[in-house]
């Protein structure tokens, strides 16, 4: 009984932690270099920060960009010519991607152009199929260490929004971090909140989410101006002081 309670408490904490941080899900073909990129992006922070999240599955790690924490989740790689009936079971493993704030599509840019185009298209199709078509997406063209300058330039012309990286050498990782952050910042919602002192844990959650925030202690609680991820904004709605109406709550007396 005790163990069960502990288990469910752990689950609840995990849910809370997951919900609190913006999530980036890796997707793409097998062998594209997703796991390598996950290690490259998060490697330096495994340790102190990781202990907070030790209950998360090992495929999920935290990393920071400009003081803000993100979760990065690995997924099973797509395989070539996935039989249609497999798409469903495969989709289950991509559940993470559906809930992610950003899908980081990783592709092996060392493949010949025709093959690359085919793989990119196939991944897009599966994302549509599992209902993730509307998720914000970023394309990382990986393994550019294997390419000559001419091929890199050609890729740059053809796919100007993609980030060219190498999980192996670390090249392009700064660009990738900047692009992830830019995507994320553009989805933030400015909020003005009054958080009662009794809700201190909310404040630390907000701090994790919003990174920098303006705060002032007042009689009624902590007055905060912060930019909150759209997906988390609803949780702070009840503290809003800038006239943002609570969304889902029905009128109290009906
Ligand atoms: N040259 C080069 N090799 C890379 C790079 N990234 C990954 N690799 C290699 O590509 C192979 C596949 O890398 P993984 O990270 O396991 O690929 P994955 O996308 O996680 O594959 P699945 O887990 O099967 O979906 C490994 O042999 C890596 O060493 C890179 O940037 N450059
Ligand atoms: Mg992998």
Describe this structure in words.
The chain is an alpha/beta fold and 254 residues long. It folds into 2 domains: 2-185, Rossmann fold, CATH 3.40.50.300; 188-239, Alpha-Beta Plaits, CATH 3.30.70.240. 40% of the residues lie in helices and 21% in strands. It has 10 helices and 9 strands. It has helices at 2-20, 34-42, 48-51, 87-93, 95-99, 113-129, 149-158, 173-185, 200-210, 230-236; strands spanning 23-27, 60-65, 68-73, 102-108, 137-142, 163-164, 188-195, 214-218, 221-229. Strand 4, helix 6 and strand 5 (137-142) form a beta-alpha-beta unit. The model is unreliable at 45-51 and 244-254 (pLDDT under 50). Guanosine-5'-triphosphate is lined by residues 30-36, 77, 142-143, 145-146, 166-168.
CATH superfamily of the largest domain: P-loop containing nucleotide triphosphate hydrolases
Count of discrete alpha- or pi-helical segments spanning 4 or more residues: 10
Poorly predicted spans: 45-51, 244-254
Kindly report the spatial arrangement of strands forming the biggest sheet.
2-3-1-4-5-6
Shape: elongated
What is the fold-level CATH name, i.e. the topology of the largest domain?
Answer: Rossmann fold
Helix content: 40-55%
Number of domains: 2
Can you name the CATH architecture of the largest domain? 3-Layer(aba) Sandwich
From the alpha carbons, calculate the radius of gyration and give it in angstroms.
21 Å
Distance between the termini: 39 Å
What is the CATH level 1 assignment of the largest domain?
Alpha Beta
Query: Which distinct ligands sit in these coordinates?
Result: guanosine-5'-triphosphate, magnesium ion
Q: What fraction of the residues are assigned to beta strands by DSSP?
A: 15-25%
Major sheet details? 6 strands, mixed
Number of strands: 9
The SSE order reads: HEHHEEHHEHEHEHEHEEH
């Amino acid at each position: 009984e005790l163990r069960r309670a502990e288990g469910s408490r752990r689950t609840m904490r995990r849910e809370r932690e997951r919900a609190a941080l913006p999530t980036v899900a890796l997707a793409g073909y097998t062998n594209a270099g997703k796991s390598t990129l996950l290690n490259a992006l998060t490697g330096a922070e495994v340790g102190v920060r990781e202990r907070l999240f030790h209950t998360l599955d090992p495929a999920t790690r935290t990393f920071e960009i400009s003081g803000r924490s993100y979760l990065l989740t690995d997924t099973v790689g797509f395989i070539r010519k996935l039989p249609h009936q497999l798409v469903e079971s495969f989709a289950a493993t991509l559940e993470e991607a559906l809930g992610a704030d950003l899908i980081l599509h990783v592709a092996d840019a060392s493949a010949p152009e025709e093959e690359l185009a085919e793989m990119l298209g196939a991944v897009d199709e599966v994302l549509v199929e599992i209902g993730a078509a509307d998720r914000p997406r970023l394309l990382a063209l990986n393994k550019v260490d294997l390419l000559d300058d001419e091929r890199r330039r050609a890729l740059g012309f053809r796919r100007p929004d993609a980030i060219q990286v190498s999980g192996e050498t670390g090249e392009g990782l700064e660009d990738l971090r900047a692009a992830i952050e830019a995507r994320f910042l553009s989805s933030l919602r400015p909020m003005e909140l009054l958080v009662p002192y009794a809700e201190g844990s909310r404040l630390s959650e907000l701090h994790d989410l919003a990174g920098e925030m303006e705060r002032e202690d007042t009689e009624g609680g902590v007055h905060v101006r912060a930019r909150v991820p759209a997906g988390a904004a609803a949780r702070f709605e009840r503290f809003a002081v800038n006239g943002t109406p609570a969304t889902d709550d029905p009128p109290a007396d009906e």
